[in-house]
Amino acid sequence: MLPTELTPVPFVPEISLYLADRSATLFSGDFHSDQPPPFWAFAWAGGQSLARYLLDHPAEAAGKRVLDVATGSGVAAIAAARCGALSVAATDIDPASVAAAQRNARANGVDLHDAEPSPELVLAGDVFYSPSVAPQMTADLRRARKAGATVLVGDPGRGYFPGRLFELVTEYTVPVPAVLEETEKLVTGVWRMK
Fold first, then answer.
1. Which CATH superfamily is domain 5-24+37-193 in?
2. Tens digits of per-residue pLDDT, 24-64?
3. Domain residues of the chain, as ranges?
4. Residue 115 burial by Cβ neighbours in a 10 Å radius (0-12, 13-18, 19+)
5. pTM for the model
6. What is the Cα–Cα distance from 154 to 176, expressed in whole angstroms?
């Protein structure tokens, strides 16, 4: 298990997460082919940008049922809960990620649920990172939008982001671990699905 420490998030210091040391990489530690790397142990730029945006614009989440897909560490879900969301669910294909998000939520004094069947706000940070994941994520987010949910995506220019489906809300320069991104800052957009 990758060791973590409760640490303020660089771009969202109001929230602390159990994160890997800044020198750690995704493949630090003992991993097996049937276990995904611990994506949840890092504060990715997309999640940080969504969290910052929500905390700066709490009305986006206040009083709403929120679903954070591919939650990772749960930073965006925690921000939504802090903004007074009616309920917040954090989901991920990696059960360890959901567990990490729950642990992080407890550390921040908020509650997260495992499911939200009819969300009013859907959050997705850093989800367009591969050609195999992007089409399914696009379809899922379009379905949520068609059902009436507002969809917000945090994306730092990943190669498979379907920009034609979104409009830019704002951009931030987000600090990131150089061992993950080969840079210390990424310009990251918060996008609203049309």
1. Vaccinia Virus protein VP39 (3.40.50.150)
2. 666 555 444 456 678 899 999 999 999 999 999 999 999 99
3. 5-24+37-193
4. exposed
5. 0.93
6. 14
